[in-house]
Design a protein that fits this description.
The chain is α+β, with helices and mostly antiparallel strands and 271 residues long. It folds into 2 domains: 8-130, Aspartate Aminotransferase, domain 1 (Alpha-Beta Complex), CATH 3.90.1150; 144-270, no CATH class. It contains 12 helices and 6 strands. It has helices at 8-15, 19-32, 77-86, 92-100, 120-130, 151-156, 160-171, 200-208, 222-226, 232-239, 245-252, 257-270, and strands at 36-41, 48-54, 57-65, 68-75, 103-104, 107-114. A 6-stranded antiparallel β-sheet has the order 1-2-3-4-6-5. A hairpin with a 2-residue loop joins β2 (48-54) and β3. One iron/sulfur cluster is lined by residues 138, 142, 144, 147, 149-150, 182, 184-185, 194-196, 254.
């Protein structure tokens, strides 16, 4: 197992024209599923392997090859039954992959080669057969389950000391670690604790009866701008040489609501 993901520049150079397809599929999975992302050498299947896994169950594995990405999906008996019922609505090349893939004791192993994004919408349908999406973004587009302020994340591993330092470094916020505790944007507990108790975006989304700003025709508005987080590019620009990609990925990715909502909007527009 690799400790860290390969650098984006390396992935871009290996995948070549298939890089955008990789990014789109990776973002789709990250936006919709709470998963551990495990990187390893790709062995005979490619340069790298990227596995999306949680509680001992693998959603799918992506292999980085030269100018190509391969998605490995394994369908068990129930999933094969579900797929068989809708198989005719899939493109012939995916039907052929399905028909020609071997079935072992643990399921049918389908290696799907992707050089462009033509098949992506079908791959996401196949992922949904494997597992229903289980990540729900906050009303403003933050991602509470990634946030180190979330109560259950604190219980698992208390990293508030570092989070407090990084909120100051990236957002000029001064909140002492002991004051950082949050039950999440969507907590229904009466006594729910929230770091941002007076969030104007949450108030607006609730008043409009929406799920998130992603469903609002006025997005991105001035109220949203009050809670707009930093993308990695914004953070790099703001911090210059003191930007650190690893600390951004580990502690600050949760607040990149603009990129997350823009992707959501783009997918909605396509569907
Ligand atoms: S601080 Fe914001 S992003 Fe973090 S858990 Fe609370 S509501 Fe969610
Ligand atoms: S008006 Fe602005 S803050 Fe309110 S839901 Fe729409 S985008 Fe979000």
């Amino acid at each position: 197992m690799l400790e860290r993901a390969p650098a984006l520049a390396e992935l871009r150079s290996l995948l070549g024209d298939a890089y955008d397809t990789w990014q789109e599929l990776y973002d789709y999975i990250s936006d919709h599923y709470i998963m551990d992302i495990l990187w390893d050498e790709g062995g005979k299947y490619g340069h790298y392997e990227c596995k999306f896994r949680k509680s001992g169950r693998t959603l799918c594995t992506l292999y980085v090859k030269d100018n190509e990405l391969t998605c490995l999906l394994i369908f068990g008996k129930k999933e094969r039954e579900q797929f068989a019922a809708i198989k005719a609505s899939f493109p012939s090349e995916l039907q052929a992959v399905y028909d020609n893939s071997k079935t072992y004791h643990d399921g049918k192993w389908m290696y799907i080669g992707l050089q462009d994004s033509r098949l992506l919408d079908y791959i996401t349908k196949m992922l949904t057969i494997k597992k229903k999406p289980n990540r729900n973004m906050a009303m403003c587009g933050y991602c509470c389950d990634l946030c180190k302020a979330l109560t259950r994340n604190i219980k698992r591993q208390d990293e508030r000391q570092q989070l407090s330092l990084l909120w100051e470094k990236y957002y000029d916020l001064q909140i002492p670690p002991e004051k950082i505790v949050c039950d999440g944007c969507r907590s229904k507990k009466r006594s729910a604790k929230r770091v941002d108790d007076n969030c104007p975006v949450r108030k607006c989304v609730l008043e409009l009866g929406l799920n998130s700003c992603g469903d609002c025709a006025d997005y991105p508005c001035e109220i949203f701008a009050e809670r707009e987080g930093l993308s990695s590019a914004d953070a790099k620009q703001k911090l210059g040489s003191s930007y650190n990609n690893q600390e951004y990925e580990d502690y600050l990715l949760a607040y990149d609501n603009r990129s997350r909502l823009d992707r959501y909007k783009a997918r909605q527009a396509r569907s």
